[in-house]
Amino acid sequence: MKMNVVITGVGGQGNIFASLVISQYAMNKKLNVLGAETIGAAQRGGSVVSHIRISEGTIYSPLISRGQADLLIGMEYVEMLRHIRLLNPQGTYLLNAMRIPTVLNNMGLDEYPSAEEILQGARKYCPRGYVIEASALAKKLGNIQMTNVVMLGALVKIMPFFNYEEVKSLVKDNSPERFKEANVRGFEEGYKLIAHS
Amino acid sequence: MTEKRYVMGDTAIARGALEAGVRVVAGYPGTPATEIVEECVGFPGVHVEWANNEKVAFELCTGASLCHVRAMPVMKHNGTNFVADFLMHVNFTGIRGGLVLISADDPGGLSSQNEEDTRILVHQYAHLPIFDPCSAQEAKAMVKEAFDLSEKAELVFCLRPVTRVCHARGIIEFEDLPKDLPAAHYEPDRQRFIMSAVEIPKFGGLKRPQIRHRWLNEKQVLLQEIMEESSYNWIEKGEGKVGLVGCGIGYTLVKEAEQYMDRKLPLLKLGTLPLPREKMRAFVKGLEKVVIFEETEPFVEGLFKKIFQEEKVGVEVLGRSGFVPADGELNLQVVLESIQKAVTAIKVSQPEVPSLNVHIPIRTRTQCVGCNYRGILNALKQTVRKYKGIVAGDIGCHDAGSFSPLELQSTIYCMGSSIPMGSGMVVAGINQPVFAFIGDSTFYHNGILGLVNAASNKINVNVILGENTVTAMTGFQPHPGTGVTLAGEKTAAVNVTKLAESLGISYRVVNPYDIKECRQALEAAVKEEGPSLIVSSMPCYLLSTRRGKKVFEPREVQVDPERCNGCMICINDFGCPAISFHKPEKKVSIDPMICVGCALCVEVCQRGAIS
């Protein structure tokens, strides 16, 4: 058993929570886990990426290198593309259909690619991908900060490695008291977002 | 009883120190070291604090050490620079209770103003020993052992983890914490702890600094013996005449690279300074060249060359003086390419991936949506434009005001340099108003000294203190203006206005969510002679929100496309990520998915198009 997961997004989207849930799940399965995070200055609206390496054997570097990720989770369009070269083209990606323009995009000095261009590029790179409206659903459920748990719900549906009930209880355990109920709800709704597995 | 937990390298380091019986932990927040201090909180008998700067933290820990208590000052590389003066004294005096300095380096400057290698300052300059961990697990073992060795050698030991150790996560074994830590006691020893140019009769009147220098030099023999025996250095056999040397995280990357190589090359794993000479000699027997992978300077490479010259070893030494890139963070790609270059016959197989023909915009960080800094920065931008002012900047969340689109601060160097640099511009005779923008944590770090200097020398600099009552950038650590200790106890908060009064300078307190009020205060400051202080005071939005407190009443904000003429003021002078410009229509719009309703932009728009 070997699985490399990359989570990409913009600072504040909740990468680290998702990464902790996945890592703890693997640890509970008695597997080795190594991870790496972007923390600090890059947090403030910058580009963030988490690496999670899961294996039965020894893992050396916490960083996943080119073409080695089995799963790429994109919390935002261009942030997924920025790291797509880490993904094995035979792997899987899960993308949140969310567009967060950059400062230069806002100024009209740089182009943010169209959703069509992005999806085409991603499909061409890797045929197995899922694109979901996780942020829109999270906002509908009351808090856009729940995007990460919606994504985790969808992830469980597309990756047989993950067990629904076990991940759900990890989501619950890792959530602060006042968000427990809402996060579990977000997770359940995220699971339903994917029509087939 | 041991327990396995999945934790960050920083947590592993903290745990190692606690298991070693550390009693005093002090630091100043700095990525990637911050969490080490935080993870030490909550253990009985352990004093943990955020000091207002690294020098204070180090000096406090040394005081504890002289009372035979184990202590750990924690900082990032910039902090260690700040400690240099003290470091160049404590190396001569030595210590009593184990004292382990954590100096975290940030290769590539992932979250720093610079990239540098603290091994040079601590080892080359101060002649102190260093452990350079290759993983979180090793970092934990090293910090534990460093406390024992520090007491054995009577010297400060340094652990130098890099970002990929601090912020890596792994499965770490937690062992029991010691009970019954020894009590503190102090015996004067003025021969050691009075660092002064005094004549020593025993040494024929030589001055104490020279004698203490001699003491430190003599300690190197013991350190050499310790490192020769160290379990953090080892040799792995391989084929061929080219050997690889992996120092700290460099070793980890070489091991990763091995998975892509068609043969195993001889490998020397290094984790200590001083270097183990015997092991080095044994390793290079039969080799023609060695390639050294280390973060970040060619430091071990230089030591290899020196040692090989002394011992007349004819082996070519390659590394980060150019053979391996001399700047930036090491990664698998760099390591593989360097190995390929050194051993042309080797076959390296790495998966090819398709190219992607989509333009990917660069994303620079900015203030959070809803951050109060955006209000004061907008007011300052307008004032600077009107009076042709110059802004000297500092470290903190507000530094993003220097990036596009605001491009406001003209200088940013290190902690606290804004006010002195701004003062320098004034005394140079520049005929423009000069502003210095500094956050409150940076102000208490040492920025306050610049203000005292400006006040006592009557320098006409306009200081803006962004008082968000927390060290926000590194994750909301309290500082002397917060009124809470790291342990969560209430304490006195520095009263800045009383400070200004005692300095005899004018001051104005403004609400950064009121741009008009900010502008009026800034203009008044420009018009008056002498130093002035503007305190832009409002708690950090992000932290307040997380705690369920409101710093403004959120409201829905929209752009009226009829009124918007595409002037771009709300973008170029304000830079909120929620507002974007649409070229075809020449209008802006606000993304409701991103907007948090602070409504500052309503005031920014000159045409009343945002409401």
| Count of alpha/pi helices of chain B | 21
Mean pLDDT of chain A: 93
Strand content of chain B is 15-25%
Reading the helices and strands of chain A in chain order gives EHEEEHEHHEHHHH
Using the CA coordinates, give the radius of gyration of chain A.
16 Å
Terminal CA distance of chain A reads 21 Å
| Uncertain parts of chain B | none
Largest sheet data of chain A: 6 strands, mixed
What does this entry look like structurally?
The complex is a heterodimer of chains A (197) and B (611). Chain A has 197 residues and is α/β, with parallel strands linked by helices. Chain A has a single domain, classed as 3-Layer(aba) Sandwich (Pyruvate-ferredoxin Oxidoreductase, domain 3), CATH 3.40.920. Chain A has eight helices and six strands, in the order βαβββαβααβαααα. A six-stranded mixed beta sheet of chain A has the order 2-3-1-4-5-6, sandwiched between helices. In chain A, helix 6 packs across helix 8 (180-193). Chain B has a seven-stranded mixed beta sheet. In chain B, strands 11-13-12-15-16 form a five-stranded mixed beta sheet, sandwiched between helices. Chain B has a five-stranded parallel beta sheet with strand order 17-18-19-21-20, with helices on both faces. In chain B, helix 15 (418-427) links the parallel strand 17 and strand 18 (434-439). The radius of gyration of chain B is 27 Å and the shape is globular. Classes of the chains: A alpha/beta (197), B alpha/beta (611). Chains A and B meet through helix 1, strand 2, helix 2, strand 5 and helix 3 of A and strand 1, strand 8, helix 10 and strand 22 of B. Strand 2 (32-36) of chain A pairs antiparallel with strand 8 (168-174) of chain B, so a sheet runs across the interface.
